[in-house]
Amino acid sequence: MAACSAAASGYELGHGYPVGDFTLGGYAVADYASADGGQPWRASLDPLSAFLWWDGGGRWRFFSEVELDDALIVAPGATTTDDARVVLERLHLDYAHSDAVQLRLGKFLTPVGRWNEIHAAPLTWTTSRPLITEATFPTNATGAMLHGVLPLTADGVEYALYASPGEELFPDREIDTFTEAWGLRVAATVLPRLQVGTSVANYRQERAPDRKTLWGMDALWAWHRYELSGELAYITRELGDERADERGHYLQFVAPVTERVYAVLRYEGFRASATVGDLSLYLGGVTWRPRSGLALKAEYARATDNDIGLRDGLRASIAVLF
């Protein structure tokens, strides 16, 4: 009991809570989207995410993440929990032979680009997620991944090589999941404060049996709390001959306004499958981080050539990391 009291008194937001040999954490997000054309305003509690992990200080580690998506939706004249669903985001066991050679088995976040692997809302700069990071490939994979940092440069070269030989473990019904996939991501610091990565993936999905190939690049430049980042991806599908299925990119700039307030600007270009033109999205926002693990965000976005029904207008959120 005394140990539990000491742990509770020493708890810090965003660092998790010890439960025996495990640590319990997670994050919660409440967001708001303004009315847009025929779409009314909408507020939601989405997601509620719980982490449970174990790290004994040796070679073995365990991590799991379970989400409750659309836990509560509020709109004019309606408040509902009917759309709530439980989603298994991650469940994997890790073995570290060395910094350069580490093995992961189970369900993990697909290592494509930068955003997908750090997508937890308290850690990102905007309420909305760039289209190219959520609408073009399954965000989770089930199988095996070999990853690590190779000592080939002064800062090392990060790599992740993965294979998903079968269907996803506890699939999310909202996502067209992998039925078969393999891929590789490599990232390295090529100039002072500039890291560049490249991704390739070849896969089939549950609802789209034709095989697809994704080619992607990403970059991050950071200096004195300023940050410039971006990703691009180009996907082809094989239907007798290769042709573009989807493509897109984004460029995001973050600048400090005060010690804890940041301005965010983002431009996105995106072309979805079966659409005629390229969508352009312009976003400006403000993020306030009053303390570690807490982020309050507000942004305004406007899209042109919006053939996919993307919501324009104001979005705001409060995100807390436990």
Describe the structure.
This protein has one domain (14-321): Porin (Beta Barrel). Helix content is 2%, strand content 61%. The protein has one helix and 19 strands. The chain has one helix spanning 2-9, and strands spanning 17-19, 22-33, 42-55, 60-69, 72-75, 78-80, 85-96, 102-109, 140-150, 157-164, 178-191, 194-205, 212-223, 226-239, 241-256, 261-271, 279-291, 294-304, 313-321. The protein is globular, with a radius of gyration of 20 Å. The model is unreliable at 1-8 (pLDDT under 50).
What's a concise summary of this model?
Helices cover 2% and strands 61% of the residues. It has 322 residues and is mostly beta strands.
Task: Note the main attributes of this structure.
1 helix; single chain; Porin; mainly beta; 19 strands; globular; 322 residues; 16-stranded antiparallel barrel
Topology (elements, then pairings):
Blueprint: H1 2-9, E1 17-19, E2 22-33, E3 42-55, E4 60-69, E5 72-75, E6 78-80, E7 85-96, E8 102-109, E9 140-150, E10 157-164, E11 178-191, E12 194-205, E13 212-223, E14 226-239, E15 241-256, E16 261-271, E17 279-291, E18 294-304, E19 313-321
Antiparallel strand pairs: 1-2, 2-3, 2-19, 3-4, 3-5, 4-7, 5-6, 7-8, 8-9, 9-10, 10-11, 11-12, 12-13, 13-14, 14-15, 15-16, 16-17, 17-18, 18-19
**CATH class, anyone?**
Mainly Beta
Radius of gyration: 20 Å
Q: Can you tell me the residue ranges where pLDDT is under 50 for at least 5 consecutive residues?
A: 1-8
Query: How many domains, in number, for the residues?
Result: 1
Strand order of the largest sheet: 2-3-4-7-8-9-10-11-12-13-14-15-16-17-18-19
Shape: globular
Helix content: under 10%
Strand content bin:
over 45%
Structural class by secondary-structure content: mainly beta
Structure annotation, total helices: 1
Number of strands: 19
Q: Characterize the largest beta sheet: strand count, sense, and whether it forms a barrel.
A: 16 strands, antiparallel, barrel
Stated plainly, the CATH topology is called Porin
Give the averaged pLDDT, no decimals.
Answer: 92
- Give the name of the CATH architecture: Beta Barrel
Distance between the amino and carboxyl termini: 22 Å
- Order of SSEs: HEEEEEEEEEEEEEEEEEEE
What is the CATH homology-level superfamily? Answer: Porin
